[in-house]
Amino acid sequence: MPKQSLPIQLRGARENNLKGINLDLLPGQLTVITGLSGTGKSTLLFDVLHAEGQRRYVETFSPYVRQFMESLPRPKIDSMANARPSIAVEQKNTVKNSRSTVGTMTELCDYFKVWFPQVARLHDPDDLGKLIQEETPSTQAKACISQFNNRNVVVGFSIERGSLPTTDFLQFLISAGHARILSHKDYARIEDLLQEGTWDQTSAFVVVDRIKIKPGSKNRMAEAISLALSHGKGRAEARSSTGEILSSFHTGLRSRVSGKSYAKLEQGSFSFNSPAGACPKCKGFGRIIEINPNLVIPDKSLSLSEGAIKPFQGKVYGHCLEDLILATKDLDINPQLAWKDLSQDSQDFIWKGDPLYEEGNERWYGVNSFFKWLEKKTYKMHVRVFLSKYRGYFNCPECKGTRFQYEPQLWKWKGRSLPELYSLPVSELLSLMETQPISNEPKTDLPLEAICTRLGYLRDVGLDYLSLDRTSRSLSGGETQRINLTACLGAGLTDTLFALDEPTIGLHHKDVGRLIGILRDLAASGNCVCVVEHDDQVIQAADRVIEIGPQPGTAGGHITFEGTVPQLLRSAKSETGKWLARKSTKHPQSQIKSTKAPTKFLKVRKANVHNLKNFSANLPLGQFTSIAGLSGSGKSTLVHDLIYQELSQGSPNGWVTSDLPFSEVVMIDQGTVARSSRSNPALYSDAWGPIKEAFGRTEQARMSGFSASDFSFNSGQGRCDSCMGLGYENVEMQFLPDLSIPCSLCQGKRFKDDLLEIQLDGLNVADALELTIEDALLRFAHFPKTHKKLSLLHELGLGYLKMGQPLGTLSGGESQRLKLAKYMGPLGKKSEPAILLIDEPTTGLHLSDVQRLIDCLKKTVAGGNSLFVIEHNPMVLCQSDWIVELGPGAGKLGGKIIAEGSPRSFRSLNTATSSLFSDLEKQPKDKQIDYGQFKKGNYRRKKDLEILGAQENNLKNINLRIPSNQFVVVTGPSGSGKSSLAFQVIFAEGQRRFLESMSSYARQFVEQVGKPKVDQINGISPTVAIEQRVTRGSKKSTVGSITEIAQYLRLLYARLGEQHSPQSGKPLVSSTPQEISRILAKRIQKISGVRLLAPLVVNRKGHHKPLVNWAREQGFMEVRCDGDILPTHSFEGLDRYRLHDIEVVMNHWVKPPSRPVLNASIDYALNIGKGRCLLLFPDGEICWFSTRKSDPSTGEAYPDLEPSLLSWNSPRGQCTSCHGYGRIYDWMKEELPASGDWWKLTNGETCPSCLGERLNPSGRNVFLQDKNKRSLSLPKLLALTPEEISGFLQNLQIQKEKLPILEAILPEVLERLCFMGNVGLDYLSLNRETSSLSGGESQRIRLASQLGSNLSGVLYVLDEPSIGLHPSDNQKLIDSLRKLQAKGNSLLVVEHDLETILQADCVIEIGPHAGEDGGRVVEVGKPLQIAENAQSGTGKHLSIGIPHPLKGQWRSLPTLNSKTSKAYLELLKVNFRNIKNLKVRLPVGRLIVCCGVSGAGKSSLVRGPLFQGVKQAIQQRSGHIKADGYELKNGNIFAKAIEVTQSPIGKTSRSTPVTYLGVWTRIRELISTLPEAKARGLGPSDFSFNVKGGRCEICKGAGKIKLEMNFLPDSYVECEECAGKRYKDEVLDLKWRGKNIDEILNLTFTDAVDFFSFDELLKETFSLMKETGLGYLRLGQTSPTLSGGEAQRLKLASELSSGIELKGRRLGKVQKNFYVLEEPTIGLHSKDCQKLILLLHRLVDDGHTVVVIEHDVDLIAEADFVIELGPKGGKEGGKLLHHGTITSLLEKHKNPTTRFLRKVVRQN
Questions:
Q1: Which of 1595, 1601, 1599, 1056 is nearest to 1302 (CA)?
Q2: pLDDT in tens, 909-919
Q3: Which parts of 311-415 fold into alpha helices (H)?
């Protein structure tokens, strides 16, 4: 076990320009990766270290979840050991969700919604905001005594009669125990009213008590009020003696003024992401989308005639303007008058329309109605586009933008509601929160502490000017990155790699120190923190610096320095070290300038934008001006939102004027440079034009007919026709990242061969684009324009870039400089100077690159231009001409000029920016900066996992400390809360925190993990769950599918396979449209009703409404969606989460068309279908045609290969006869053709159509070929063993250009094949049905795939990994887990296995019992410590164990003779799977256990020939069954054959134990016999919560309501109508034996045995539940709340209950059944296992025969007869090692089970 965390060991990284880099990274260190721009820093950190760490962690998710997560490609590396789960914190804002705010990103909203309800108080809006106190019966009794002293008061409640007849209603009140009701101002006895028969009111006031109010009657009064409230469903009254209402009572909160009641709000009500708290109008967004009048009438100086109403301009809606002009004549509205001069009444008439308007009456409808009419036509694309031009976002009128419902806003703390707190700047909010004292109440103090901590993080990264309600999408990239950084720190993860990309961007140097503190804290928590950074403060604060170089581009990719900061400063080779050590001659201090005062200005007057209020300034022109200030002080607002917006629009507000004329204003912001692969540096900088023209002027070009435009890969006749000039083909890889491979025609050169023959100065066009900019400067010096453009790029340090390098491959620094070159180049050509505005141009630049940049900026200013630069970089500030500093703070505290002048003048000032100059002044040139000042502390060894206040499910506020990097076992009785702790608390929180640290964009595609009910969790690592999965899949599931190998192979065959014709067997070829037309004409001859279709969508998810709308607009009437013909005019969209195929119906021919019409139709169809079309015949037959994939013999076309065509789970790929099962089952035969021999096939016989290969003919005829010319289809490949498959795939013959596809898929396949070998399952073929696997084989496959991710620092949470494993295999598992632990991982294992518990480092026992009696920590410690605890059930088992045999002795076996021939089942000639010629006799009426190593053949023998043979014998009433592969004798002596398998029970909220047991119908029938039920006409179905009738229709009988929220996980709230009771009141009012239907569902099974003791079936069934140890469960408990062990035992009880013979038991003639149980001990604690054993003995004592497949030695030890198979698994198994008694087995020392059995059986 490692003493400290292991380093990440990277070897041989070759991604992009990296040159085989080797690197070790230690957790707990802050590592800075630096170097010149373009050297490979980001490639190393993000494309290698982060990509591999995230890829491996994502691999631990389910395949379904993985398809929605960001899929990073496998980097090109030799190896990476001890990889950590990785989180990238990058410089981009990918938030697409308007719900996301600063508060949600940092989880502060989550903590506020927990804390706020604890401290806030309700304020009455109807009583001047006064506090409302909560009312109780006691407080209301006290108020009554003071108000009605010495008066007689009658306390009671009102009840509606409803549809009940008067007699039944009064009788019901009597049966409920009530005596009097109010009748005609008198309180009459109900019995008297019943006798009189005159009472007929619709409601009654029922008396609870009559009280003479006195000071001493408070308790009686409170009791009466409480009882009345209970009966009156929360409402009661106090009345006078004559019935006058004196006071109304209720529970909870109520306004004293209006009488309105308020509910006590829960946490969800204080979240705008919860339906309980979100404003219903805006759904919690705070804004709504409506038509914006300012966009409809943008220029109010125009008249109606001049086009004031913009949407009425143009031909489409121009008639609306005519209608309006006509309407204005009647009202004397002048259409020539400017809109602003029209009266308000006139404007209202134009906007709202004539009040008398009705459709068709020719009155004016109004602009507003015009848009409402358009809203009805949004199914049309052009209408949606049109409307988008006039829509705008507006504050929600209901919540006023707060996002919350009205009621939560009435709750306030310190006079502020929660939305008001969210609107405060972080600095102000933190100060306010710190005034709240500690209450010593964890529910309040823990969230308060978390809130203050996270607010402090935001302050420390310089974001204290933000408010929590600021939307995420409005943040800059730098702000987003720093918020994500605080979220990472707040998540409290350990052993994680955090990759950050220049986090200092946008940060003032004053704030950098606090950011460094954050980074060091993150590292100190045991994480690897890696930062790509150029900032000198961050570099000097690093534990370790890695410099990549030596030059950018292809000359980079080497580690030029690796070590500590002192070593860096001494390094002669390090460019960074030179700058930091002041060895550069261009040190900022030496460049501080003193500038003459400017004379010409850019004048800003009284501007108001954001935090610039009444802002005025004189900004110098013709100089290099830096705009400085703290983050959030208003710099970007000044430069972008004020100067640029005003000058570029002609200063519409008059805020900005210039003393000098200027030609243009150019804004260069931090937006990314174009990412199209068609753009490159030569094109982007406008340097390619002259070169292209020169190529076009060459003699060769003119002779070949090429012009200059043809030397472009974006247009013209010279580009490659296949890839259209891209140079590559996109290959969609489904669950792998998509690939780009070189075009097979042009080999990536983008141009046609004949154009590439044309040369200019010895180079063709492709060669020219391969030149570096530096080389191109020499080659094309004779082109002035090109030379000038390229020179500027060279001056900016980009000379190493290739001319044709795609811009998407550039680093951040390269992109920024390219933008500068783009805009700075043309400035000198203008007659007048320009104004250039730049936002942080040093982004992504190394110190040496910064100086290059400054030199270029100075040249720009020297040309007469004005330069305004937002910047924090000291080098830029020192060398600028003028500095303007904004401040003094951020947000509301900023927006003012606090200093301005030359850099030298700043030395004497006292501002945030001036401190930089004073520091430099004090710093001697020869003195190094003390980097040690940033060291915040050394790496703290990884903490233990600490859990505080876990309350999930039945957990009782557990506090627990779990040691890290240890093998920890959680045990305890089944249902005690083990899995709740391990999975629903620890795993859920670890995964949730990791996902929350990922980008919001990535998270929105992943199923959201709910926050567990726990106060606090500290020291948690990213978690991986390996849950209990005892099922073996359906009959379609194979070894290949559950290992995911089949999915990868389908992709491989779809992308690289060669398609052959199923008819001729020849490879498919391309066809011409003429050939298609000829074949098609033949096919449709003399056939009417044929449709011609063109494919639009193939196997793609989405609702596809826009596509079908387009088809409708093109005039097409029908589309075919997933095989169904649908009209386009009423298309409502498809399920967006399912894969779909859509074809448009081009023609529907009543009779065959003429040849010209046919030719034109085919050309059109092929054009729309991209080379493919199909015929649909009236009988449903389909015939494809393609210009690419057709049979050379018949011309028949086939669809393009997709993985779904090779999947037997897809209708597109499966065999149409067997539906992909490979076998014909009886249930299929009705759908098969009546002709043929289908009916002769036996159930489960191999399908004659596909011969068991499951695929249709197209899928079976796709081949891959190896270098030995061996061709295999996918089904043939899957039939091989892993070793044979691996050999074939590694020897494939693949075209060179397609090798990247093979390289992407093959490692995934080989890795998984290797897993199978590692666990000894290399004998299995991949087409083996998983239903035929043993439990051990299934378990080993699952564990191998999930434990093979090779991660380090992860917390693995495993749920009973020993299930299905023989004790000998279990030891191998423990060894594997120890190896996993040795890699630096922590293990948390939920387990009952004795050997696993004994070998654990630490054991946690949860108990002491199950259900509500569990959920507590019984003991924590070493196994020996547990064994010594007398209160521990596990300890008792460890120290004492179960005495075997429990009944004192084993049952004797019957002797073998002719008289006892039927005392044995005889199974002989068994040849099934790995069992060969086996013969065995099994004694009847005994407990029989079949054991053996995993894969030995136990399940094959017992569930196959034995159980199936007995079933067949019972059905055929035959004593001798002869079947294919076995014979069975005496199987007909049983009444029933019952199998208890490992198939799961229902997991919906409608599934309950009582419904699963099948006795709920009987209970409902009993209740429906009540006279009251009959009187109300209620039958058994009315007592069902699954059908209409008596159930509550609001929740549909679920008791809770599902609330769906956009972008968020679905949540459930208790149904308010039925209070979670599932039924209507009229049903709940009925009581049977004193309990209503809801109370019966809440009975435990132990209580139910007594309650239903009169009914033999119910009593016996519920007794079985008690005997299996489930007596504590409730009848109506929902199945999802059951643990794995509880579900297993419930299934056992259900199956055993089917064998209850009531009639026979009464007559003493109980029929004998044959039971087969498969590993029934799964999920059972030793105490529960003992109960199970006693139950099995009871069955045998009743005369039944019980056969158990089992590995648990305690159950084996109880067997009367044991069958052991072996000696190994697979081909080496299937042999009979033993059949006989336990005692005889103990004598066989070499048998695998014997040595484990000896440990539990004490021999005399």
A1: 1056
A2: 888 888 777 65
A3: 318-330, 344-352, 367-375, 381-388
